Amino acid sequence: MAKGGKAKKGPASGGQPPPQISHLVLFQGEAYELLSSYTTTHPARVDTDQPVGQSAVPAKEPEQLGPSTRRLVFSLADALDDLVNSAICLEKLEDTRVAVTPDGRIKFVEAIFVERKDLPSLREFKIRVAENYNDLAGIITRYLSPVSHCIPAEVTHLLYLMRNRAWEMRYLITYHSATVPLGNRSDLFLIMHSYVWEVLRKTDPGGYEYVMASLEYDPDWRNAVVNNEHLQKYYYADGGGLYESNAQLQGDEHRQVMRFNHDGQSHPLEHAADSSAPNGMLYNPVQLGHMYHANFARLTYSMQAALHAIDRLRCVGIKSLFSNDSKEYQEIR
């Protein structure tokens, strides 16, 4: 993994690390590549392909991090969150003291750990944690600099949280839509939608209204989705223009957007069958998820942020959709 293709085998981090984070420290002889080198040998990638079925009018926001890039960003955030949950932070987070193992795990090399119990106050610990997240945002920004012209909106939101609201938003930073595996993107939306509609609406009307009012999407979404031949079929479901004529949804744009995103992604192959297409289908569920993402790039993370603001994101059960297992991040085309 190091320069020349060979992984280094190195020492554990400087000093004796706290036992509760032993899994984040290299064991003697474990292979690794320093993050400072890894980001060069594994360049950042942003996928900008238009979704399947798109007409001559391009989708406005098709960008999403490539699988290996997404995995690295998630793994870094996950490792830092693991430290903080153990009441530990770093003297300073530097890419020369972060290791990437052959299986993509993040560990620390000669890092200086600072335990909460050794600091004079919780306030001091929070300040140091914020500094660590600011360091992480800087590392990720430098890593993405070669593709800075096409950074996805959700990544910009993630970096903003790291720099400005790290302490209170750690859970969202770790489990952010920007780093969910492609195959789980639709599931992330559907799980939150189900909670908002089936639970929050019935048990906390005020919280429900807050979440709905916080949703972000292109106000011209109707014209956008009909420029995709597959999304168009969902939009004109049953031949009646459901999202234009449904009396129950009239006057509530947020509910119409949520309904449209839910209906298609919960029945991902409803309009996919075609005997002349490969495997008998025009697109697969992952490709459908990209179609929705390209037209509603801000919807999922704005719903996440709203649920987090009312302390309901943790209970929804999205954590299992994220993984630093390399098998979860293989290319899906």
Automatic annotation (TrEMBL):
Residues 1-20, 43-64 are annotated as: Disordered. It comes from the Eukaryota. This is Uncharacterized protein.
